[in-house]
User: What shape does this take?
Amino acid sequence: MRVRGMKDRVVMSRGPNEQWCEGERLCEAAETYQGHRAGRTFKTSSEGLGYHADFPAIWRGQYRDELGSSSSSSRPIHIIEGDMFEVTSDLVATATFERSGRFDAAFDKGGLDVIPPSARQSYAAVLDQLLKPGGRLLLVVMDYDQDKLPDSEGRRGTPPPYSVPEAEVRRLFPAEVGWTVEFLERQQEHLLSRRILPLRDVNLHEAAYLVTKSTKAEPADLTEQSTSEVGRKTAPLLVVLATAMLGVGAAAALVSRMI
Assistant: This one.
């Protein structure tokens, strides 16, 4: 696959009517720098001196699948740089070619198992908002016994990655509200065991699931959740491809079919 473009970072901000629009906006006037503001940058613009919106942002380009496609025409590839917990359908519809703001499929590896357990319900709610009825999530998570982590000076080693057992996946995507969870496979994970000292002697596995949203399901209201609990270092990227995909973690994406 050959990618072109992706050179210009376009900041998205909410205007006076709270609608998303392209371009930086002065969010807080200030004569002097008053410390860090999440998603803001301190600068001077035509609007004045102060904290301007700098997050989320959109990168736009074109890609050509020279091996897997009979057509040589280019297709758009759009990447939203942002906190997944702040991504909404109206942001997607405004910033990308996917005007419905929702996707046919999502892929997550390294997303769900690095956010705190207290934020998992919000994770599921965001996916519920961004997936179309009938949409699917290919989910790959770590599964291990966290009680086996070594105890050092009275404290156990702390994740991430956190363990996400099958029962937890089914709790987050319950059949009662229209989700179907299919266990695909489970295999030993060796790379993290070698890299992360507390996991060295833990029986670590990767488990894969196919999660499908009912064709009759409508998105529920987002659960209230402070994004500060998640932390910027785990903020995932949203990747929107012409053939469909949403980015949720280290390797993640939401997918929309283009007819």
Confidence is low (pLDDT under 50) at residues 222-252.
